[in-house]
Amino acid sequence: MAVRIGDEAPDFTADTTEGRLQFHPWIGDGWAILFSHPKDFTPVCTTELGYMAKLKPEFERRNCKIIGLSIDPVSDHHAWMGDIEETQGHAVNYPMIGDPDLHIAKLYDMIHPNASGDKARTAADNATIRSVFLIGPDKKVKAMLTYPMSTGRNFDEVLRLLDSCQLTAKHKVATPVNWKQGEDVIIVPAVSDADAKAKFPDGWKAPKPYLRIVPQPK
Fold this sequence. Notes:
Layout: E1 13-16, E2 19-22, H1 23-27, E3 31-37, H2 43-61, E4 64-70, H3 74-88, E5 96-98, H4 103-107, H5 123-126, E6 131-135, E7 141-146, H6 155-170, E8 173-174, E9 185-187, H7 193-199, E10 205-208, E11 211-214
Parallel strand pairs: 3-4, 4-5
Antiparallel strand pairs: 1-2, 3-6, 6-7, 8-9, 9-11, 10-11
Helix pairs in contact: 2-3
């Protein structure tokens, strides 16, 4: 079945580089980023895993755990981690899930449900396993991104996306194009002007009645 924004993130139990874990209890009461890879010892993914290790303190500051997945065995992950640290300057400091039978890839609708985990599978078959899932404390999927194999993902953008989702989960606002932390936001249409006056007593700018701009709530 397809996984969509608003769905409960499929739970699973899997072996990782930090031991066996069950996903939902591992998330706990915070946020989580699950990001997937089509194969170990691939160049673009090597850069991504290293950069996420560098960014881990920023995610932790936002009460968000990060976890990687690659459809190879955990034993291969351990070998790959040495290459990542050597070439990227950052050791992988979060769990990496082994998914050689494609169980989790299929749970998250990242690959055709009839795909097999055998050696006959090609790189083209694996290409769809380049996704990011942002999951909230309620275990619901809040956002999804999927990239081609040839394009490294922008994890600074994932951090910005997390900031937006956390802000808009707490306040009845939305973030405009290219928004960054601390910039003005938009009052959502579901909030009437009367309710907005109570929530934002200092008022707002409204170039159009449906476009009500206020400073970012604290």
